[in-house]
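Suppose you are handed a protein chain with no further information: no name, no annotation, nothing but its sequence. What can you learn? This example shows the usual starting point.
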Amino acid sequence: MQTNTQVSPTLGLVAAIVAISGGAILIRWSQAPSSVAAFYRVLFTTVPLLPIAVWRYHDHFGRITRRDLVFATLSGIALAVHFAAWFESLSWTSVAASVTLVQAQPVFVALGAWLLLRERVTRRMAVGIAVAVSGMAAMSVGDFLGGVAVGPRPLYGNVLALVGAVMAAGYVLAGRSLRQRVDLIPYVVVVYSVCTATLLGIVVLDGHALTGYPPREWLLFVGLAVGPGLLGHTVINWALAHLDSSVVSVSLLGEPVGATILAAVFLSESPTLYTVAGGVVVLFGIYLTASERTV
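A reasonable first move is to predict its three-dimensional structure. Written in structure tokens, the prediction is:
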């Protein structure tokens, strides 16, 4: 894919992966309830987009049909559950396991597209799904077989991370056709607004306070929005206009690797041999699935 941008898309993609990899570390550093951190992460990502949406795309919102609005709402709810489940998983399992498992969403996108949309699953994709699932199983039970685990309840945390991956796949599936008819900024604003409202409901139902946190927590909330949110996913969306989608998709597999390294440096958290071995298998399975879907 040709590009005439003065900024290297490859360098931008690398910086975005680093920014996303740091998200798990910021979540671990936060002492606020996970649902509160997730709420402010999405809220502070959405707010800067509102003036742009009102100024340049105000007339686009009226063109969104009722059917598209329903799918955007479902997409936003799925994204909210993704964030809530994944943020909570980091309280119970290792960073390496949580980030690797939640990154498995391409596997569930392929399964969902086959089950719900009757899309064809190639032999390579089937192998990739099988490999990824076997790696997930190894990660989830291996630590117990070895007698050593990272995290107070690693199996519970791993399940939450998988729920986050399934919900991320639902977010992608619900919004995939929608993005063909709705511009990026109006789509993101609607979906993120629904996501923010859903997370607010989760915070209220959990009985957590929205205020009263020390300055350190607010800096972490902003960091989650600016780092993984604006500098991470926004730059990735920009890179997609200059690089092949297969390159970008496979590059996202660098997040679990980066997060594991950062966790070792900043959290003194070393994953067990079973987590590393199972994680490698999962990443290989994701690679087979994702690279086939984007060819």
